[in-house]
C-alpha cells in the first residue's frame, strides 16, 4: 500500500508490520511511511523502492517540509546510507555554479541546508552564490532581477551573522558583502 504526498514524484510506502527490517544496515521503523521518489507513478513497481529512491524521496520531503515530524529519522537514514551526501551534493552545487547554472546550485545548497541547517559553510555557500548571481545579473543589465538576488544574499548573510562561531570564510564574505 502506498499513497501520494504533496508531490507527484514522491510516494509514501507503508512499512507497517515489517519487523526487524533493515536497509543498508539501517533499522526501518514500521510506524513511519517511507517517501520514495518515482519518476512516473503510473509505472511504479516494488523495484523502485531502492535506497537511492528512498533517500531522494526523503530529501524532497525535508526540503519542502522543514518541520516534518519525521525529519530527524529521515536525516539519520540519509547519513547512514550515504555518509558522504554533503560532499556529493556540494560538488554538484559547485560544478553548477562554475558553469553559470546558478538556479541548480541554489537548489543543491538549499537541499544541503535542509539536511544540515546548522552548517555555517552551507549557509555561507548559498549566501555567496546569491551574491555572485546578483553581480552576474547586474553585469548583464538585469538590475531588477539583480536586486532580488542581492536581497536574498542579504537575508542569508543575516543568518550567517547569527552563528556564534564563524570561520575565516564567513568573516571574509561578510566583509566583502557589506563593503
- Beta content comes to 5-15%
Give the overall pLDDT as a whole number: 91
Helix-and-strand structural type: mainly alpha
* Helical fraction: 55-70%
Q: Distance between termini? A: 57 Å
Q: Output the helix-strand order.
A: EEEEEHHHHHHH
Number of strands: 5
For the biggest β-sheet, the strand order reads 1-2-5
Low-confidence stretches: none
The 3D shape can be described as: elongated
Please outline the helices and strands.
Elements: E1 2-4, E2 10-13, E3 22-23, E4 26-27, E5 34-37, H1 51-64, H2 71-81, H3 85-98, H4 102-115, H5 120-139, H6 143-162, H7 168-178
Antiparallel strand pairs: 1-2, 2-5, 3-4
Could you explain the architecture of this structure?
With 179 residues, the chain is mostly helical. It is 58% helix and 8% strand. The protein has helices spanning 51-64, 71-81, 85-98, 102-115, 120-139, 143-162, 168-178; strands spanning 2-4, 10-13, 22-23, 26-27, 34-37. The chain has a 3-stranded antiparallel beta sheet. A two-stranded antiparallel sheet has the order 3-4. The chain is elongated and about 60 Å long.
